[in-house]
């Protein structure tokens, strides 16, 4: 199976662990991959309850699922011209 890529600027829904019994849902624009402490994390730009732009870091180990809301953002191979805008999560 080939790698699946998510692209910066794409809209995604991430379901992740939270401190409660129910998972947290984050819907927003993928900004990139970063380090949170010693763990890898994904960063999403979201709109808060007061319509302010917020950035949410989600540790990779806490991700349950990433839902693709636009199939055009999902591709089997990375294109050479888009290589800087692509992050892989395994």
Features:
two-stranded antiparallel sheet; SH3 type barrels; mainly beta; globular; single chain; 90 residues; five-stranded antiparallel β-sheet
Short description:
The protein is mostly beta strands and 90 residues long. Helix content is 0%, strand content 50%.
Describe the fold and architecture:
It contains no helices and 7 strands. The protein is mainly beta. A 5-stranded antiparallel β-sheet has the order 5-4-3-2-6, with no helix packed on it. The protein has a two-stranded antiparallel ribbon with strand order 1-7. The radius of gyration is 13 Å and the shape is globular. The mean pLDDT is 83.
Query: What are the segments in which pLDDT stays under 50 over at least 5 consecutive residues?
Result: none
Oligomeric organization of the protein chains: single chain
Count of the separate structural domains: 1
Structural shape: globular
CATH architecture: Roll
Instruction: Summarize model confidence as the mean pLDDT.
Output: 83
Q: Biggest β-sheet, characterized?
A: 5 strands, antiparallel
Order of neighbouring strands in the sheet with most strands: 5-4-3-2-6
The level 1 CATH classification is Mainly Beta
Q: Number of DSSP helices? A: 0
Number of strands: 7
Distance between the terminal alpha carbons, to the nearest Å?
Answer: 12 Å
Order of helical and strand elements: EEEEEEE
| Strand coverage percent | over 45%
Q: Could you say which structural class the secondary elements and strand pairing correspond to?
A: mainly beta
Radius of gyration over C-alpha positions, nearest whole angstrom? 13 Å
Kindly identify the CATH topology.
SH3 type barrels
The percent of residues in helical segments reads under 10%
């Amino acid at each position: 199976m080939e790698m699946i890529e998510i692209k910066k600027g794409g809209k995604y829904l991430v379901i992740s662990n939270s401190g409660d019994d129910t998972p947290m849902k984050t819907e927003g624009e993928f900004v990139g991959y970063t380090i949170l402490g010693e763990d890898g994390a994904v960063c999403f730009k979201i709109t808060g309850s007061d319509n302010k732009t917020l950035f949410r870091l989600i540790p990779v180990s806490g991700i349950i699922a990433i839902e693709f809301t636009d199939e055009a953002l999902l591709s089997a191979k990375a294109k050479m011209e888009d290589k800087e805008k692509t992050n892989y999560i395994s």
